[in-house]
Amino acid sequence: MHKPAILYLLSCLFLLPQQVLAAPVKKPVLSKHIKWTGTSWFGSAIVHDLGTTSRKIIGRFYDIIVWDGAGNELACADRPDGIYAP
Asked: What is the pLDDT averaged over residues 42-57?
């Protein structure tokens, strides 16, 4: 490696971190409280549009449940046998 490249990399290593300031972290805000759905250790909810223009919340609990953005249940698929990772 050439000396100018090494000097450039070293200057970036030592100078740039000093110039970057961390922004304050905002306190989390609870925006929706959806009715109790059972327990689920591995069923993290996701947000997806499902091919439409509005986002929906999809959660895997004992069943698979889909809510609209306002928290209204749109669909529920009963899965008594569960869905587990392979």
From this structure: 82
Distances (CA, A) of 21 to 3, 9, 12, 18, 24: 30, 20, 15, 8, 10
Residue 86 lies in a domain: no
pTM: 0.54
- Total domains in the chain come to 1
Within the chain, where are the H helices? 3-19
Question: Does residue 1 have a pLDDT over 70?
Answer: no
Give me 78's structure tokens: 């009963």
Residue 61 exposed, middle or buried by CB count within 10 Å (0-12, 13-18, 19+): middle
Given a cut of 80, whether residue 22 has pLDDT beyond it is no
Pairing of strands 46-48, 56-60: antiparallel
Domain membership of residue 68 (yes or no) is yes
